[in-house]
Design brief:
The chain is α+β, with helices and mostly antiparallel strands. 26% of the residues lie in helices and 32% in strands. The chain is built from 12 helices and 17 strands. Helix 5 packs across helix 6. The longest helix has 15 residues. The protein starts with a strand and ends in a 12-residue tail after the last helix.
């Protein structure tokens, strides 16, 4: 067993822990020049590392953000943006201790939940995270794909300069990001995740849609060549990195621009909302192929009463959930969910589930029926399954849409 100690990261240890994370995720080392520009996106706050002496061998990092939940309220969440263990120190309890310490810190700071994108989905269920939102990868063939004549189109689209993209997009995103599952993108998010790609030293294109009330959507994309010796005339692929629209007209306007770029053979977009209506916008929906549907956002309730009370529920008869949380036992208990909200109760349970399954149910991505069929929910009262379906159902699929 490796002897190590987990403690908070200091300012002087930011670079070494960032390099450690990069090595564990098989990314290239960040140069001194890039670190000088983007290192502020890796502050010491809310970072814990496992050390052998003064040498870091594992890292667990997060930043605070706001997450939109069904009904429109926001909850402060710990966005886990970096977890890794050095390759020669894996499977020795390092990750388990890091996650335990991080979760205890989130609870001690009073944050009601934690969220993440999972590099390996099998890891996080045992720490109480559930797959709470999905995303689809789509590929649209060009130049065959065209919007049909009844797609609502209004406004115009303009390309931004890199300097404009750095200045204008953060405010626009904050104004239009309203879907359950979306985060607020705090200042620490932008330098590494946006400015590096779309700013003066990046190679991504940024376009903004403007309607009658001003700017209401944007897209960030780059091009990937498909030309080779065997296919010298093959057009490039537009790779969509970031696309957000405040309403359907803005969404249609942005896709119209993407589908009108010359010398392009396809548009590729990963982690789009599963209910994004691109296929019915086209004259031939077969030109938009869904290549994959993957887990997007994982959610870990840290304060179950606060999390359940924050979202709204549809009209229906109440249901009592018995929740078990082995890592944070204060969450274990019975909760009555109804159209008027949620509260602890001493009433008998209708359905029983672990806290990771509650994370799957919470944003509305998975129905209670599906989770029962998957063996994740134990049924005490069979009639309660349909009641839970009705209460937790949302009209809009949850979606995060932000890399971190």
């Amino acid at each position: 067993m490796t002897a190590f100690a987990v403690r908070p990261v200091t300012d002087d240890e930011r670079r070494s822990t960032f390099d450690l994370l990069g090595r564990s995720l098989h990314s290239t080392r960040v140069s001194d020049e890039k670190w000088s520009r983007y290192g502020d996106s890796w502050p010491a706050a809310h970072k814990f590392a496992a050390f052998e002496g003064d040498t870091p061998i594992g890292i667990a990092s997060s930043f605070d953000t706001d997450l939109t939940v069904p009904g429109g309220r926001t909850l402060t969440a710990a966005a886990v943006d970096g977890v890794g263990v050095r390759a020669d120190r894996t499977r020795r309890g390092v990750l388990t201790e890091l996650m335990r310490v991080q979760l205890a810190d989130v609870a001690a700071r009073g944050l009601p939940l934690a969220i993440l994108h999972a590099s390996e989905p099998t890891i996080y269920g045992r720490f109480g995270y559930g797959s709470a939102a999905l995303g689809k990868t789509i590929r649209v063939t060009r130049p065959a794909a065209r919007l049909h004549e009844r797609v609502p189109l209004d406004g115009n689209v303009r390309m931004l300069t890199p300097a404009e993209a750095v200045k204008e997009i953060p405010e626009l995103y904050q104004r239009i990001a309203r879907r359950p599952g979306m985060i607020s993108r705090p200042p620490v998010w932008w330098p590494m995740m946006h400015d590096r790609l779309a700013g003066p030293d990046g190679d991504h294109v940024v376009a903004v849609h403007s309607g009658p009330d001003g700017d209401d959507g944007f897209v960030v994309y780059d091009t990937v060549t498909r030309r080779s010796l065997d296919t010298p005339d093959e057009g490039a692929v537009l790779n969509v990195r970031d696309l957000h629209a405040g309403h359907p007209v803005a969404l249609a306007g942005l896709w119209r621009v993407l589908l009108s770029v010359d010398l392009v053979s396809a548009v590729h977009a990963r982690h789009r909302p599963v209910d994004e209506p691109l296929s019915p916008m086209l004259t031939d929906h077969r030109h938009a192929a869904t290549l994959a549907v993957e887990d997007d956002l994982w959610l870990r309730p840290v304060d179950v009463p606060a999390v359940l009370a924050a979202r709204t529920y549809r009209a229906g008869e109440p249901v009592v959930l018995a929740v078990t949380d082995r890592l944070l036992p204060a969450n274990t208990g019975h909760y009555e969910i109804g159209p008027d909200g949620a509260r602890r109760t001493g009433a008998a349970a209708d359905l029983t589930l672990d806290v990771d399954t509650l994370g799957m149910l919470y944003l509305g991505e998975w129905s209670a029926t599906a989770l029962v069929q998957a063996g994740r929910v134990e049924v005490v009262d069979p009639a309660a399954v349909a009641r839970a379906d009705e209460l937790f159902t949302t009209t809009t699929a949850p979606w995060c849409g932000s890399y971190f």
